[in-house]
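Hi C.,

You asked whether I'd gotten around to modeling the 313-residue construct. I have! Everything is below, sequence then structure, no commentary in between.
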Amino acid sequence: MAGDGTVQLIDEKGKRVDGRLKDELRPTEIKIGVVKNADGSAEIRMGKNIIIAAVYGPRELHPKHRALPDRALIQCFYRMSTFSVNDRKSPAPSRREKEISMLLSDALTSVVLTDKYPRTTIDIYIQVIQADGGTRCASLTAASVALADAGVPMRGIIAAVASGLANDIVVLDLFDLEDQKGSGDMPLGYCPTLNEISLLQLDGVFTLEQFDECLDLSIEGAKRLYDIQTNTLKQRYADIRAEVAVDEDDEVKEELKEQLNDEVKEELIEQLKEEPKKEEVKEEPKKEEVKEEPKKEEVKEEPKKEEPKKGDE
């Protein structure tokens, strides 16, 4: 619920409690592939928020009677860890968690090409490790990147951010104190490639001018988040291509080694074949010497031929 607006959240110079300007996002970092057993996963650190999203599927749905004949079913499971907030949270799913799970499922269904996988389910598990306001928007941002990491075909990626009122001044990306003590907040999920709003909620009282300003500011913030998402995905795929290139180089090196080994083996075989031939050539003169011996015996037999000549005389 929005606060009464009595807490001073922004000073006269436009500085907020955490030092940001009214149109400034919290420091945001996204990592991909953090859950090895999942088909796709992402971790987002948005301010003090730490959230992990893991995607499993498309896969067979159980029980089967819940399967849709013409498209896949998107199921989100948003959960907050018991230690994610200051006061220990009950481990049982709360009404708020179930509501956010339903909202995230509807938002992601609007961009996923579910008709490609009829009678299946795509399960998205979202775990809030540390909460600091705006967790539903950060979860939607991380889930979109996790779906892209899983290779699920989509019409576009959703970037989500919440704007609101801090002392009746429109500010971007509310953190926990502004969310609780501000006079209104408006979570928004936006797909820049389609120029479509996938999620829009409103809590508090806004004038028409404040609503328009808040909407424009949220869209601009979502576009900046989208740049972070796309850059992270590009870097991820660049890393994968580098790994594949290294593997291919290793395979080429192994093939070259095998070829060299084969060539060395062939040379050794040829050498072994040539060696006995050389020995045979060396043995030939030995055989000739053996043949010369009977020639000497023939010379000895010559006096025997002379003996019968003496008998004739």
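If it helps when you're writing up: The domain at 28-245 is CATH 3.30.230.70 (Ribosomal Protein S5; domain 2).

Thanks,
B.
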